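Below is a filled-in request sheet from our internal design queue. Each sheet records the structural input a requester submitted and the sequence that came back. We keep these sheets so that new team members can see what a complete request looks like end to end.

REQUESTER: design group, bay 2
PRIORITY: normal
MODE: inverse folding
CHAIN LENGTH: 478
BACKBONE (tokenized):
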């Protein structure tokens, strides 16, 4: 079960949307299935016309607003403050059975109780309703004001608690099991960013900036080179420094992406992705700076990738997990560097993104093999940009892609063994893209500009991990 929470200010506007036809007439028979006082369907707005959505919503909206109105709370955005209307959507997987209204009512109560938003049998708690207008999900609207004290409140750690409550519901109802909240999910664009990008006919700025920043970081040897690469790619970048002059962070913006006041919309590195924060980039550059590599980047990269696969395989057989975490993280820069060869390979890097991240509280170190991966990634980017190569990659490049696919599948199996289905699926999907790219190369692919040494021959597919480890893990999509 996938849950998502957003905050707002106008519960009336939310109810109008939930009980209405939706943005594309997608709402079917919207109805109240649960409420704060146990009346549940008794709060269903009465029909006032012949149309499905001709209902009198006034009584329900006034009842929900009453505690907030009594507390004198506004119904408009306040600068720098979070709205007190808590809106949660909960969705089951596509293959799950259709739950009844009564089951969804219990799900709503379980989620609110587990998240610490509205405890069961708390008569003085907040007012809320659960609305259903589709087979596979419900929406819960809560006004975060206690009825007994009239005080606004904020539930503590409600997001991770809600995730655990959803997992408990999955087990109780026999639904598809999803992964726990582990802090590895990508920073998704907000609705406003998506709508703005759609109007402009572009991808959301957050997505474009993450791609550009990661590419610049992989090819850089330090902060100065990184900043130059970002600016050369056509983006604005600023560094935040301490009084001593030491860099503390950075922010980037897309040209033409401005606020209503005409100011650039900046994103800090950590808001783009966890691995793009300045401290993480600095550690990566320091790691890559230790040691040297062979003169031929493609040969060096393939050897490093093969060594990395051995490290992950050792971890699967009971070796040190810390080494495998470091390898998983350092594999993304190599995929990012290879992604400059074609759009398909860039997709492989983006699919792998989540597999490169360690769950919350888990720390991996860049030991020798991981550091070597980062170095050859930088070499690959440097060679590509120096030569301006744009023709078909040769046999050595194909050999590297085959080795990368084997490594990525090993990482997928390792992640799956450790109960991390999201990361395992991300790695498996990335390997699939790599395999398709390799399969599409001409059978007689010669060395071209990418061919060097013995690797210039058409490589034979390397053995993959056991078939059981390759089976895809189904993860519901929200």
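RETURNED SEQUENCE:
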């Amino acid at each position: 079960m996938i849950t998502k929470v957003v905050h707002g200010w106008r519960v009336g506007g939310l109810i109008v949307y939930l009980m209405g036809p939706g943005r594309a007439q997608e709402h079917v028979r919207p109805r109240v299935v649960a409420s704060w006082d146990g009346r549940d369907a008794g709060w269903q707005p009465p029909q006032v016309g012949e149309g499905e959505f001709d209902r009198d919503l006034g009584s329900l909206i006034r009842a929900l607003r009453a505690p907030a109105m009594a507390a004198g709370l506004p119904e408009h955005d306040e600068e720098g403050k979070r709205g007190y209307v808590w809106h949660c959507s909960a969705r089951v997987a596509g293959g799950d059975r259709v739950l009844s209204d009564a089951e969804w009512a219990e799900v709503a109560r379980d989620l609110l109780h587990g998240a610490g938003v509205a405890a069961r049998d708390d008569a003085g708690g907040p007012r809320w309703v659960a609305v259903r207008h589709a087979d596979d999900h419900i929406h819960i609207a809560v006004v975060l004001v206690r009825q007994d004290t009239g005080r606004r409140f904020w539930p503590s750690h409600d997001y991770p608690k809600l995730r655990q409550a959803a997992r408990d519901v999955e087990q109780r109802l026999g639904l598809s099991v999803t992964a726990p909240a582990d802090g590895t999910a990508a920073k998704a664009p907000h609705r406003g960013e998506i709508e703005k990008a759609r109007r402009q006919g572009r991808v959301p700025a957050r997505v474009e900036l993450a791609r550009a920043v990661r590419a610049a970081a992989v090819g850089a040897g330090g902060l100065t080179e990184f900043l130059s690469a970002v600016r050369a790619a056509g983006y604005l970048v600023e560094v935040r420094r301490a009084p001593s002059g030491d860099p503390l962070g950075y922010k980037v913006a897309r040209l033409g992406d401005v606020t209503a006041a005409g100011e650039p919309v900046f994103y800090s590195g950590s808001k783009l992705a966890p691995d793009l924060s300045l401290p993480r980039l600095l550690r990566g550059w320091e790691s890559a700076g230790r040691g040297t590599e062979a003169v031929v980047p493609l040969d060096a990269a393939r050897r490093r990738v093969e060594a990395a696969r051995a490290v992950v395989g050792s971890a699967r057989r009971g070796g040190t997990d810390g080494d495998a975490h470091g390898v998983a993280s350092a594999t993304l820069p190599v995929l990012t560097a290879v992604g400059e060869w074609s759009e398909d390979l860039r997709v492989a890097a983006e699919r792998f993104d989540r597999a490169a991240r360690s769950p919350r509280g888990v720390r991996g170190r860049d030991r020798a093999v991981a550091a070597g991966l980062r170095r050859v990634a930088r070499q690959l980017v440097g060679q590509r940009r120096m030569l301006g190569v744009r023709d078909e990659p040769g046999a050595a490049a194909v050999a590297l892609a085959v080795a990368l696919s084997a490594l990525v599948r090993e990482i997928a199996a390792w992640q799956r063994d450790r109960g991390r289905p999201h990361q395992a699926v991300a790695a498996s999907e990335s390997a699939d893209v790599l395999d398709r790219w390799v399969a599409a190369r001409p059978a007689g692919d010669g060395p071209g500009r990418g061919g060097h040494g013995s690797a210039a021959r058409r490589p034979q597919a390397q053995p993959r991990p056991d078939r059981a480890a390759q089976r895809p893990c189904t993860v519901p999509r929200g």
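SHEET NOTES:
- The beta strands are 2-8, 31-35, 85-91, 127-132, 137-143, 235-241, 247-254, 267-268.
- Residues 444-478 have pLDDT under 50 and may be disordered.
FILED BY: M.R.
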